[in-house]
TrEMBL record:
Homotetramer. PANTHER family: 4-HYDROXY-TETRAHYDRODIPICOLINATE REDUCTASE, DIHYDRODIPICOLINATE REDUCTASE. Its EC number is 1.17.1.8. CDD domains: DHDPR_N (cd02274). This is 4-hydroxy-tetrahydrodipicolinate reductase. Belongs to the DapB family. GO terms for biological process: diaminopimelate biosynthetic process; lysine biosynthetic process via diaminopimelate. Keywords: Amino-acid biosynthesis, Cytoplasm, Diaminopimelate biosynthesis, Lysine biosynthesis, NAD, NADP, Oxidoreductase.
Length: 253
């Protein structure tokens, strides 16, 4: 039985994660941390990590980038693995995560969906076959409350294509300020914000007289919650290091 502490437990994703865990037999919610929330289940909710009394097996984080430092300090001092599902980190915060993996296991992914990670792999394969002859554009769509743009998932897809293409691509976020033809080595990344869109990502390969589009649509946040809980169970017994969805899927093959 994996005992899980949820950071950001009173937010929408935190509640979905708690609900997913309640329906499983291999894990349970031990406690939650949320500075503006109150207890709503059969587990305690603390305003900060320094007040947590229980010893969890794994932390699942879907909170806010501002909570990263305190969470990592707690995790390192208690040798607790962490599943990080939040986005919008600064380069300095990403370095904090890289430093933490020397001491604890960290599962870090910009998207916990199995389908999205398959999309990434398909995009890499398409780039291998088409990249030199096709223009590549990424379009991501999310709800009107999302703070970061482009999404972490869009950047994850772009980085995977960039790696496949040998690191020679340039990310182009904003073309309205430039009046010139598209450069061949660009990856265009575009953000749409509106309504209650959970998450949609398109990878467009546009060639001469033909277009190939890879698309993933998330219809509820539960797909991310299921992935995060699976990651927590996977991470419990791991040694310090950085893990992602690819590592988890490879172990289950």
């Amino acid at each position: 039985m994996t005992h899980i502490l949820i950071n950001g437990v009173c937010g929408h994703m935190g509640r979905v994660i708690a609900d997913v865990i309640a329906g499983r037999e291999d894990c349970t919610v031990l406690a939650g941390v949320d500075p503006v929330g109150a207890a709503y289940g059969d587990f305690p909710v603390y305003p900060s990590f320094d007040q947590v009394e229980e010893k969890a097996d794994v932390i699942i984080d879907f909170s806010h980038p501002s909570a990263l430092e305190g969470m990592l300090e707690y995790a390192k001092s208690h040798f607790t693995p962490v599943v990080i599902g939040s986005t919008g980190y600064t380069p300095e915060q990403k370095q904090e995560i890289q430093d933490a993996v020397k001491e604890i296991p960290v599962f870090f992914s910009f998207n916990m969906s199995l389908g999205v990670n398959l999309l990434v792999n398909l995009a890499k394969k398409a780039a291998q076959v088409l990249g030199d002859q096709f223009d590549i554009e990424i379009v991501e769509k999310h709800h009107n409350q999302k703070l970061d743009a482009p999404s972490g998932t869009a950047l994850m897809i772009a980085d995977a294509i960039q790696e496949t293409m040998g690191g020679n691509m340039v990310y182009q976020y904003d073309r309205h300020a430039q009046r010139k033809k598209r450069e061949h080595n660009e990856i265009g990344i575009h953000s749409v914000r509106g309504g209650t869109i959970v998450g949609e990502h398109q990878v467009i390969f546009a060639g001469r007289d033909e277009v190939i589009t890879l698309t993933h649509e998330a219809h509820s946040k539960q797909v991310f919650a299921v992935g995060a809980v699976n990651a927590a169970v996977f991470l419990e017994k791991k040694t310090p290091g950085l893990y992602d969805m690819g590592a988890m899927l490879a172990e289950t093959e």
